[in-house]
């Protein structure tokens, strides 16, 4: 009881302190120093209509490379910690016919929609991470509906690695062509798609990178699901 | 040409992503591959170090070709160049050590996490953007969680759990702090932030800075938030412990110092500085007193390492040039000494099967060269003249007294005496008790002895190291210079 009261009091003090800090942040006033620059220049500098993806992939692409790495670490970490010599799925109750048939039917549609999301990252809300997560949802559905379903591991792991490598490679090509790591060579050197603003084949390297991220996130999250669903089998 | 230095980030990344592909080709190639990559990284870091110290100009890497603050820049000044080199060298040594020390499967996952831990620390030290710092901090922290639990024992899982919970809370605090600072200034670039720091409302600056410091204190192992550290050091694989102590903590400490000094013009800065001073002093006292009653040598040195970290934080919290220089010097010395100590202890651990104090009885007869390196490390850490740590400890205490803080100096000196007690107990156990047959020592001893030679060399002739460190220190302290070196676009309209 005493512990709980003390905890509540401490949290209230911290909350008040944070509120005090927040109250002095000038919200609503024009503090958009860098933000305004992005809004003014996003179209001619990156070719993206979606300003968020332009910031995330192009202006601050370094952060996204880092975030992709964080997810890679999460999936590698889970795999390393749950590693056993022999593991299998031990689910016992099969799903009903309605569930299995429904999942089978839905699976391609979900994957298709996921791909739609990451391919159109520079035009519509979304991008690589939501698209990849949607694809992983399709695999989760298969895992939940079937008691024996398994993703093809060898292929998935290799794809994951290759997708990550291609992201860095796109950056390194930028270093070779434009002189800067992660430089958008498709838009700024080749001027490819400059007359096509707002259509699918525009946006410089944003769709390319988002496709890579989508594939990578999709395989990674599916791998995490796979690792967590399997249990050790004693021989 | 200087943009090529972005390979420091790109190389470990692309190599880590290549490991799953390499695993398909041939599993036994993974460890040699790891050594090769860390060796190349050392080469690049050496080139960057040479470049920065001969031209005297920092290397500014602009990711994507965007000028800051629109894009993200990496700032490899004297400090970053020095520590990126240390990170690469220590990673190379631990990669070589890993071949012998890590037998637990899956090796391919270990190699990936190892490379990414190196990448995360490099990024934290090199970045010039406060949100990018957060991303690299997450990379470092999450690899550290996974590697702590890598041995899959109950003990390791518990240690990792503690770390993950504390680290998670810490990074959310850090993120809230970054959000507040962004809300107050409208920029995330460190140089731009420093320029705008005078205009921040004092309360926002205080709350934001305190949150950032608290968030980083988990990584930097300062007092109320370092409960995870001894457990993690003890339970992690031996090579990983070396990396934790030699550079993961340092990256956190550096980030803390960098952000603190960036905002030194902000109102309310000195009270945040005082907060760090109190935390640092308490860290030293608690860690050294806890080390005194440890029976496990690895855990004992882990506590000792935390105590030394507290000393560095103390030096950084003084707010003077002398203090920062001394702190950086201690960072360098501590990286060398503790890398050597943890390598030695880890080597004993895998040769004799454990790191309890009893295993070290008669080590002087059984493994004389390892025992010699451990002795040099122990004597040096205590701060005996003619060894490197003496100079940095001495400078820290002098700087503390100059800044007018009598009590912290006395407390820290007292902690050094405590340190002497348990280190000399260890030395006594190794040389004057027990007996045993000679055990054959492997080539890892070469690295131990090289590090030991470095310890003594800096101890006898500290001037060259001190010159390098002074430049690295002014990199942190002289913010005006830092801002001048970053090609900001000016205030954008």
TrEMBL record, chain A:
<feature type="transmembrane region" description="Helical">
    <location>
        <begin position="161"/>
        <end position="183"/>
    </location>
</feature>
<keyword id="KW-1133">Transmembrane helix</keyword>
<dbReference type="Pfam" id="PF20501">
    <property type="entry name" value="MbhE"/>
</dbReference>
<keyword id="KW-0472">Membrane</keyword>
<keyword id="KW-1003">Cell membrane</keyword>
<dbReference type="InterPro" id="IPR050622">
    <property type="entry name" value="CPA3_antiporter_subunitB"/>
</dbReference>
<feature type="transmembrane region" description="Helical">
    <location>
        <begin position="129"/>
        <end position="149"/>
    </location>
</feature>
<feature type="domain" description="Na+/H+ antiporter MnhB subunit-related protein">
    <location>
        <begin position="98"/>
        <end position="221"/>
    </location>
</feature>
<dbReference type="Pfam" id="PF04039">
    <property type="entry name" value="MnhB"/>
</dbReference>
<dbReference type="GO" id="GO:0005886">
    <property type="term" value="C:plasma membrane"/>
</dbReference>
<feature type="transmembrane region" description="Helical">
    <location>
        <begin position="65"/>
        <end position="84"/>
    </location>
</feature>
<dbReference type="InterPro" id="IPR007182">
    <property type="entry name" value="MnhB"/>
</dbReference>
<feature type="transmembrane region" description="Helical">
    <location>
        <begin position="203"/>
        <end position="225"/>
    </location>
</feature>
<feature type="domain" description="MrpA C-terminal/MbhE">
    <location>
        <begin position="31"/>
        <end position="86"/>
    </location>
</feature>
<protein>
    <submittedName>
        <fullName>Multisubunit Na+/H+ antiporter, putative MnhB subunit</fullName>
    </submittedName>
</protein>
<keyword id="KW-0812">Transmembrane</keyword>
<feature type="transmembrane region" description="Helical">
    <location>
        <begin position="105"/>
        <end position="123"/>
    </location>
</feature>
<dbReference type="InterPro" id="IPR046806">
    <property type="entry name" value="MrpA_C/MbhE"/>
</dbReference>
Automatic annotation (TrEMBL), chain B:
<dbReference type="GO" id="GO:0005886">
    <property type="term" value="C:plasma membrane"/>
</dbReference>
<feature type="transmembrane region" description="Helical">
    <location>
        <begin position="339"/>
        <end position="357"/>
    </location>
</feature>
<feature type="transmembrane region" description="Helical">
    <location>
        <begin position="163"/>
        <end position="183"/>
    </location>
</feature>
<keyword id="KW-0812">Transmembrane</keyword>
<feature type="transmembrane region" description="Helical">
    <location>
        <begin position="70"/>
        <end position="98"/>
    </location>
</feature>
<feature type="transmembrane region" description="Helical">
    <location>
        <begin position="301"/>
        <end position="319"/>
    </location>
</feature>
<dbReference type="Pfam" id="PF00361">
    <property type="entry name" value="Proton_antipo_M"/>
</dbReference>
<keyword id="KW-0472">Membrane</keyword>
<feature type="transmembrane region" description="Helical">
    <location>
        <begin position="203"/>
        <end position="228"/>
    </location>
</feature>
<feature type="transmembrane region" description="Helical">
    <location>
        <begin position="29"/>
        <end position="50"/>
    </location>
</feature>
<feature type="transmembrane region" description="Helical">
    <location>
        <begin position="396"/>
        <end position="422"/>
    </location>
</feature>
<feature type="transmembrane region" description="Helical">
    <location>
        <begin position="110"/>
        <end position="127"/>
    </location>
</feature>
<feature type="transmembrane region" description="Helical">
    <location>
        <begin position="6"/>
        <end position="22"/>
    </location>
</feature>
<feature type="transmembrane region" description="Helical">
    <location>
        <begin position="443"/>
        <end position="461"/>
    </location>
</feature>
<feature type="transmembrane region" description="Helical">
    <location>
        <begin position="369"/>
        <end position="390"/>
    </location>
</feature>
<keyword id="KW-1003">Cell membrane</keyword>
<dbReference type="InterPro" id="IPR001750">
    <property type="entry name" value="ND/Mrp_TM"/>
</dbReference>
<feature type="transmembrane region" description="Helical">
    <location>
        <begin position="269"/>
        <end position="289"/>
    </location>
</feature>
<feature type="domain" description="NADH:quinone oxidoreductase/Mrp antiporter transmembrane">
    <location>
        <begin position="129"/>
        <end position="417"/>
    </location>
</feature>
<keyword id="KW-1133">Transmembrane helix</keyword>
<protein>
    <submittedName>
        <fullName>NADH dehydrogenase subunit N</fullName>
    </submittedName>
</protein>
<feature type="transmembrane region" description="Helical">
    <location>
        <begin position="240"/>
        <end position="263"/>
    </location>
</feature>
């Amino acid at each position: 009881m005493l512990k709980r009261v003390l905890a509540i009091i401490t949290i209230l003090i911290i909350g008040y302190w944070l509120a005090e800090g927040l109250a002095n942040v000038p919200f609503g006033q024009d503090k958009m120093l860098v933000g305004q620059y992005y809004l003014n220049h996003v179209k001619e500098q990156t070719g993206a209509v979606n300003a968020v993806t332009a910031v995330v992939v192009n202006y601050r692409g370094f952060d996204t490379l880092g975030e992709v790495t964080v997810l890679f670490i999460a999936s590698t970490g889970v795999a390393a910690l749950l590693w056993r010599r022999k593991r299998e799925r031990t689910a016992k109750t099969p799903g009903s016919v309605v569930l299995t048939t429904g999942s089978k039917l839905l699976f391609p549609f979900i994957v298709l929609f996921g791909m739609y999301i990451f391919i159109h990252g520079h035009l519509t809300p979304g991008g690589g991470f939501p698209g990849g997560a949607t694809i992983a949802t399709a695999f989760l559905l298969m895992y939940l509906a079937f008691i024996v379903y398994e993703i093809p591991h060898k292929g998935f792991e290799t794809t994951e690695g290759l997708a990550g490598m291609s992201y860095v490679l796109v950056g390194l090509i930028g270093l070779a062509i434009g002189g800067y790591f992660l430089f958008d060579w498709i838009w700024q050197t080749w001027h490819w798609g400059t007359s096509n603003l707002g259509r699918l084949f525009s946006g410089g390297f944003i769709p390319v990178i988002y496709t890579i991220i989508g594939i990578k996130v999709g395989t990674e999250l599916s791998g995490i699901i796979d690792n967590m669903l399997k249990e050790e089998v004693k021989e | 040409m200087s943009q090529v230095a972005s390979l420091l980030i790109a190389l470990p990344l692309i190599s880590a992503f290549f490991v799953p592909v390499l695993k398909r080709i041939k599993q036994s190639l993974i460890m040699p591959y790891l050594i090769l990559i860390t060796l190349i990284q050392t080469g690049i870091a050496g080139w960057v170090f040479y470049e920065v110290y001969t031209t005297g100009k920092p290397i500014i890497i602009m990711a994507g070709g965007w000028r800051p603050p629109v894009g993200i820049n990496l700032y490899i000044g004297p400090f970053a160049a020095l520590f990126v080199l240390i990170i690469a060298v220590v990673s190379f040594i631990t990669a070589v050590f890993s071949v012998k020390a890590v037998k637990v499967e899956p090796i391919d996952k270990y190699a990936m996490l190892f490379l990414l831990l190196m990448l995360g620390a490099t990024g934290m030290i090199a970045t010039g953007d406060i949100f990018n710092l957060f991303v690299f901090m997450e990379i470092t922290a999450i690899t550290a969680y996974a590697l702590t639990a890598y041995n899959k024992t109950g003990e390791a899982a518990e240690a990792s759990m503690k770390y993950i919970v504390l680290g998670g809370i810490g990074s959310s605090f850090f993120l809230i702090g970054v959000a507040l600072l962004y809300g107050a200034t409208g920029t995330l670039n460190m140089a731009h932030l420093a320029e705008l720091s005078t205009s921040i409302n004092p309360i926002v600056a205080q709350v934001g800075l305190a949150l950032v410091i608290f968030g980083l204190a988990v990584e930097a192992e300062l007092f109320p938030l370092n409960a995870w550290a001894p457990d993690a050091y003890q339970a992690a694989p031996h090579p990983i412990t070396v990396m934790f102590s030699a550079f993961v903590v340092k990256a956190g400490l550096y980030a803390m110092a960098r952000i603190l000094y960036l905002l030194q013009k902000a109102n309310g800065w000195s009270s945040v500085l005082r907060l760090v001073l109190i935390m640092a002093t308490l860290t030293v006292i608690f860690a050294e007193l806890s080390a005194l009653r440890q029976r496990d040598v690895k855990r004992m040195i882990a506590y000792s390492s935390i105590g030394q970290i507290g000393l560095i934080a103390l030096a950084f919290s003084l707010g003077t040039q002398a203090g920062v220089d001394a702190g950086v010097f201690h960072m360098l010395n501590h990286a060398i000494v503790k890398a050597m100590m943890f390598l030695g202890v880890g080597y004993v651990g895998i040769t004799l099967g454990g790191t309890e104090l009893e295993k070290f009885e008669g080590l002087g007869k059984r493994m004389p060269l390892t025992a010699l390196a451990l002795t040099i490390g122990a004597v040096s850490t205590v701060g005996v003249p003619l060894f490197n740590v003496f100079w940095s400890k001495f400078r820290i205490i002098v700087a503390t007294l100059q800044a007018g803080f009598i009590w912290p100096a006395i407390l820290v000196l007292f902690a050094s005496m405590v340190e002497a007690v348990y280190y000399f107990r260890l030395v006594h156990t190794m040389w004057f008790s027990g007996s045993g047959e000679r055990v054959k020592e492997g080539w890892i001893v070469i690295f131990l002895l090289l590090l030991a030679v470095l310890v003594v060399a800096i101890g006898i002739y500290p001037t060259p190291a001190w010159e390098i460190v002074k430049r690295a220190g002014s990199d942190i302290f002289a913010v005006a210079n830092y801002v001048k070196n970053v090609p900001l676009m000016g205030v954008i309209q």
